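step: validate -> pass
step: tokenize input -> pass
step: predict -> running
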Amino acid sequence: MLQGKPRRRADLQCRPRSNAPSQLWLIVVDASASTRRHGALSKAKGLLAELFERAYRERSRIAVLDAHGAQPKWHWQGQKASGALQGWLGDLGAGGGSPLIPALQQAHDWLQRRQRLKPGEAQRLLVVTDGRLREWPALAPSPCPATLVDIECAPIRLGRALQLAGELGADYCHIESLPQLPRL
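step: predict -> pass
step: emit ->
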């Protein structure tokens, strides 16, 4: 191949899209008031903008669960990524409490139902949080591969997101040490 152009017939690959397993990215976003501090939410929004763009290019399905205020709220539940995600992201603001634990429990149940309905779908969970929770009940491990991105940017860090990632069985990374997007 020369600069991506095939030179001979053997260079061509025919892979129908229908044979590839569909991908689903479930993203749980903690947008509680504590994420406003030290630019944590704005860094998370930059990361999410890149992820949404990548999902659009790869024709992946997206589910978004927003955890702020009194209770978690679903914004997408398995639709193909679109430009509407960028609009929602632009309007996302932080405030109120952190219903992150109920959001994670809802995400767990939703993923298990989705696995029964679409067994061939490749699922991935991404949790974006600063981990600023006082306490939480024991959590069930994620039913699919998971990554927790810690957005805690305060000078004094509590480190609870690492503990949360351990309970979920998720890979842990801090947003400031991300050389590239987490593998989804």
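step: describe -> Strands lie at 23-30, 61-67, 73-80, 122-129, 146-150, 171-174.
step: cleanup -> pass
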